[in-house]
Write a structure and sequence with these properties.
It is a single chain. The protein has about 120 residues and is α+β, with helices and mostly antiparallel strands. It has helices at about 65-70, 75-85, 90-100; strands spanning about 1-5, 10-15, 20-25, 30, 50-55, 55-65, 115-120.
Length: about 120
């Protein structure tokens, strides 16, 4: 995954991981569109540069697939994220801390490696 922000837009290259999720200022949770195929280091493949405007966005969540796979109970990613994203906490540090606490998994399960980045 590779991301950058420019002129109130987010741009990303993605190889098999979920696209970013944004939490809008209205409280709506939206998964952006854009996941490229997982092709390793194939020299003949050119990755698509995805982009999305960041109007009315409060938080951006960037994560690897292990973050949600480790805790799925219903296999619907947005429904699962809705359960753990703290919609009532908008202070940036408090939001990130509460989200991290809510997303912890049961250690008796097999755990895929996971990454989570919160951009406020």
């Amino acid at each position: 995954m590779s991301y950058f922000l420019k002129n109130n837009k987010i741009y990303w290259l993605n190889a098999g991981h979920p696209p970013p999720v944004v939490l809008r200022k209205t409280g709506e949770i939206c998964q952006l569109k854009g996941t490229g195929p997982l092709l390793g280091l194939a020299q003949d493949h050119s990755y698509t540069l995805y982009e999305a405007a960041l109007d009315n966005v409060e938080h951006i969540l960037l994560y690897t697939d292990g973050w949600t796979e480790n805790r799925f109970t219903d296999k619907d990613e947005i429904c699962e994220l809705t359960k753990i994203i703290p919609l009532d906490k908008h202070a940036h540090a408090e939001f990130a801390n509460t989200l991290w606490e809510n997303s912890q998994v049961t250690l008796s399960k097999e755990i895929d490696d996971a990454s989570l980045i919160v951009i406020n």
